[in-house]
């Protein structure tokens, strides 16, 4: 609402960051404004932790607006 343009989000959880496959819609954009957050958590009773990656992107501003 503040940006006056569409915003979308995406989240992934993986044991290794290199294993994350980003959606094609993020990879094919010519211009992309994003905010990225990365965290790590370990669930009780599991031997390994996981990375949590969240991306929030906003559509480019309308030209002439």
Defining traits:
65 residues, three-stranded antiparallel β-sheet, 6% helix, 3 strands
Distance between the termini: 15 Å
Instruction: Give the DSSP E fraction (strand runs of 2 or more residues).
Output: 35-45%
Strand order of the largest sheet: 1-3-2
Helix/strand structural class: mainly beta
How confident overall, as mean pLDDT? 88
Principal-axes geometry comes out as elongated
Q: pLDDT below 50 for ≥5 consecutive residues: which ranges?
A: none
With helices defined by DSSP (H or I, 4 residues minimum), what is the helix count? 1
Care to count the β-strands? Answer: 3
Percent of residues in helices: under 10%
Radius of gyration of CA atoms, rounded to a whole number: 15 Å
Oligomer: single chain
Biggest sheet details: 3 strands, antiparallel
Order of helices and strands: EHEE
Describe this entry's structure for a reader.
The structure is a single chain. This protein is mainly beta. The protein is 6% helix and 40% strand. Strands 1-3-2 form a 3-stranded antiparallel β-sheet, with no helix packed on it. The mean pLDDT is 88.
Describe how the helices and strands are arranged.
Layout: E1 7-14, H1 24-27, E2 33-41, E3 50-58
Antiparallel strand pairs: 1-3, 2-3
């Amino acid at each position: 609402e503040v940006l006056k343009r569409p915003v979308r989000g995406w989240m992934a959880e993986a044991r290794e960051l290199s294993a994350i496959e980003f959606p094609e819609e993020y990879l094919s954009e010519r211009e992309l404004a994003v905010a990225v957050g990365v965290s790590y958590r370990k669930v009780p009773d599991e031997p390994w932790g996981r990375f949590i990656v969240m991306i929030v992107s906003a559509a480019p501003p309308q030209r002439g607006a």
